[in-house]
Write a structure and sequence with these properties.
The protein is an all-alpha fold. The protein contains 14 helices and no strands. The chain has a domain of 205 residues. Helix 7 crosses helix 13 and helix 9 packs antiparallel against helix 12.
Length: 308
């Protein structure tokens, strides 16, 4: 892959001017969560303290990177969000219900019925069969290794492109998590459970179902981050010249989008919102083509994606 060939040969990193795009949005998310929890729960509750602590670690890593300007400090600054976003995701499932939010399932279902006549999860139920369930479950399952693979590939690429990739990816997560707090919902598989017969499939269908049941936080529906992140992954590859990987991933990506509705995890409006979010993030980071002519040779010109 051309990503691997873009690794810098020295141990220094080009300086970053200001904050990265996702650091602004993630910082804003943490402040919002801390203030809301302090008001609606308690200033001393974990729901308030944890976002404050995460914000402090983020600020410390940003400060270290701006002083050290090494590949290690830069990559640590990016990798912080891998850990922090998982912590926030798990906490949202605990804390958002305690803030008195009403479920948005009825609203999302009404949007589906207004725009599509019926939520597609119910329409597809009559077409469900074991072979299709296995195929779409496999596409859905691929999201999990893809999350690791894409982040590792871009983390060890040229620093400018690594920053831009992570800036867009965690912009998606920041906005998506805000959506979870404003419109928490369980999805058709819970809200409309009495309307469905259990899906029939094989081991992949069973494994995917187990992962979702044990790993979801219970409010992670609007927008669909599976679709938003998948859109961002394949779109970033296309915009960065990774055409071979783009073509290889395109069919599974489409299968994953179908799977979110077929497997009853999402309303159609969730998927539409996720696609718009992923596309908007791609537009905001505007990746460079991976050619040497497009990579400035002077460190001062390798700038923060938020300021380009």
């Amino acid at each position: 892959m051309t990503v691997a060939s873009a690794r810098p040969t020295d141990t220094s990193a080009p300086p970053t001017r200001g904050l990265l795009l996702h650091e602004w949005t993630f910082g804003a998310l943490l402040i919002y969560l801390a203030l809301r929890s302090a008001i609606q729960i308690s200033p001393l509750d974990a729901a308030t303290v944890i976002p404050v602590l995460l914000l402090g670690v983020d600020v410390a890593l940003i400060g270290w990177d701006r002083r050290a300007r090494t590949l290690t400090s830069g990559r640590s600054r990016l990798l912080f969000h891998v850990v922090a976003m998982n912590v926030v995701y798990l906490r949202l499932g605990v804390d958002v219900p305690r803030m008195g939010n009403l479920s948005a399932d009825a609203w999302l279902l009404s949007l589906d019925r207004r725009w599509f006549g019926e939520t597609p999860a119910l329409r597809l139920a009559s077409l469900a069969n074991p072979v299709t369930s296995e195929l779409v479950s496999f596409c859905y399952f691929l999201f999990f290794p893809a999350m690791l693979g894409y982040q590792l590939a871009w983390l060890f690429s040229e620093p400018l492109r690594a920053r831009r990739f992570f800036a867009g990816l965690y912009l998606v997560y920041s906005v998506g998590f805000a959506g979870y707090t404003l419109a928490p919902a369980t999805g058709p598989w819970v809200h409309l459970a009495s309307s469905f017969q259990p899906l029939q499939g094989g081991p992949i269908t069973w494994l995917t179902d187990r992962i979702v049941r044990t790993g979801c936080n219970g409010i992670d529906v609007f927008p669909s981050l599976h679709i938003a992140v998948t859109t961002y992954f394949v779109g970033y590859d296309a915009m960065s010249g990774q055409y071979r990987r783009f073509l290889f991933a395109l069919v599974p990506a489409i299968g994953l989008c179908v799977a979110t509705v077929y497997l009853r995890y999402h309303y159609a409006v969730d998927g539409l919102a996720g696609f718009i979010l992923g596309a908007a993030a791609l537009f905001m980071v505007r990746p460079l083509r991976p050619t040497s002519a497009n990579i400035p040779s002077t460190p001062a010109s390798r700038l923060n994606p938020a300021s380009s």
